[in-house]
Structures are given as C-alpha cells and as structure tokens.
Amino acid sequence: MLLIVQSVAIQRRLNGFHKQMGQASFVLFPFLILGFMMIIDVSAQRYASADNPFILHNGPSFGFGMAIAIAAYLTLYYQALKTRRNVKLHAGYMLATPLILFESPFSRVIEQFLPWMNFIGSEGPQAVQDTIAISDGMGIFFAMTLYFLDRKHGAPWLVASFFMGLQAIVMWYAPYIPELGPMFLAYAQIPLAVSASVGVGAGALAAWLGWRASSRAKRPQTKVAV
Predict the structure, then answer these.
(1) Cα separation of the two ends of the chain
(2) DSSP letters for the chain
(3) Which of these, 2, 200, 214, 204, lies nearest to 90 by C-alpha position?
(4) Buried b (16+ CB within 10 A) or exposed e, 169-187
(5) How far is CA 205 from CA 66, 81, 89, 182, in A?
(6) Which tens digit of pLDDT belongs to each residue from 63-76?
(7) pLDDT tens figures, 135-162
(8) Are 80 and 210 in contact (CB under 8 A)?
(9) How far is residue 65's CA from residue 88's CA, in Å, rounded to a whole number?
C-alpha cells in the first residue's frame, strides 16, 4: 500500500506528501524485516518439533528461502535510498521489492487453481518447491522484460532477478542437502528475541546507510587550489 501511495503521490506532484511517506518507511521497513524473521522462527520451531512430514521436507527450504528474501529486501531498500535523487533508479528499486515474494502467494495459486502450470511434476511435498521455482521464473521473466525496455536504468530489475533466481535454486535443492537440516535445527535454538532484534537492527541499518550514501552524493566536491 505504501508503494502504491508513493507512486500516486509523485505522479500527482505531491512531492511533500511523497517525502513524508518515504520517511515513514524508515519506521515500517525494520518491522517488515522483523516479520520475515518471525516467519523463519515459526518454520524452524515446527521443523524442530517434527510437526509433520511436509515441514520435515520443506522446513529448511522455507527458512533459507526467507533468508534470501531478507537479503534481497535489505539490498533493494538500501539502493532505493542511495539513488533517491535519480527518479528512475529510485522508483525501480522500490517497485522491484514486491517481486521477491511474488512466489509466496502465486505458488499457492498454482497449487490450488492452476496445477497444469507445474510442468516440473515432482511428487509429494517437493511439488510445492516446483510451484515456487515456476513463480520465481515468472518474476524473473517480468523483471528482465523491464530491464531490456530501459537498460540504462535497468539495474533494479537485474538485482531482483538475481535474488529470485538464487531463491528458486536454493529452495528447490535444499530438501536434498542433508547438512541444512542440522543448521536449521541450530537456528531453532536461538531465542526469538535475539533473532527479532537482529532483523530490526538490519532493517534500521539499511535505512541509515542508504540515507547517508545519498547525502554524501549530494555534497558538492570542493576544488583544491594548487
């Protein structure tokens, strides 16, 4: 909703309101990352308790996939703030953020309503990884189309495509990497207060560093007389 409001505001030349909503994101963004950390914690706790065969197969995949999504959001948000004086790059980095988790709802759409789209055809719990990979592939196709339409300002879509590709590969193969199970079990032992604090801190740090990077770019260079 914030992205939609921001886009409408700048299109209608409501620059002041756009800036206010942008500043509000400094507060909202760390809580977004907090929510992602809580999702990882839920998956880890269910995996540790051997809740059901589905989570035993897919738990580490969900955890590492969400970790990649967090890295993507931190990167895109930082770059959006860093390039806020370049309208096309700033808008691109912000508008690329929803693509990262497009796989989450659309994979369920495929599973429930469009099963014919799962051309990979894995059996059992692995089928959900098929739908996630296909959804990420669709996101990459969309992002790369935007990149080729304007390659000069296409960096945001390349960044988003990289993270979606990485997410698809890691999540699909994670169930077949036994070493990831013990790592996820170890993560489950970390108190939520600790992991949540790390998430909030990472979100706040990305905002602060991005804003500072933009401010440094604004400063005029001083000529030194020889």
Answers:
(1) 53
(2) -HHHHHHHHHHTT-HHHHHHHHHHHHHHHHHHHHHHHHHHHHHHHHHHTT--HHHHHHHHHHHHHHHHHHHHHHHHHHHHHHTTTSHHHHHHHHHHHHHHTTHHHHHHHHHHH-GGG--S---GGGHHHHHHHHHHHHHHHHHHHHHHH-GGG-HHHHHHHHHHHHHHHHHHHGGG-TTHHHHHHHHHTS-HHHHHHHHHHHHHHHHHHHHHHHHHHHSPPPPPP-
(3) 214
(4) ebbbebbeeeebeeebeeb
(5) 19, 12, 21, 30
(6) 999 999 999 999 99
(7) 999 999 999 999 999 999 999 999 999 9
(8) yes
(9) 29
Task: Provide mean pLDDT across the span 78-96.
Answer: 95
Could you tell me if 81 and 207 are in contact, meaning their C-beta atoms sit under 8 angstroms apart? yes
Query: Tokens for 3?
Result: 């992205």
- Cα distance between residue 222 and residue 214, in whole Å: 18
Phi, psi of 195 (to 5 degrees): -65, -35
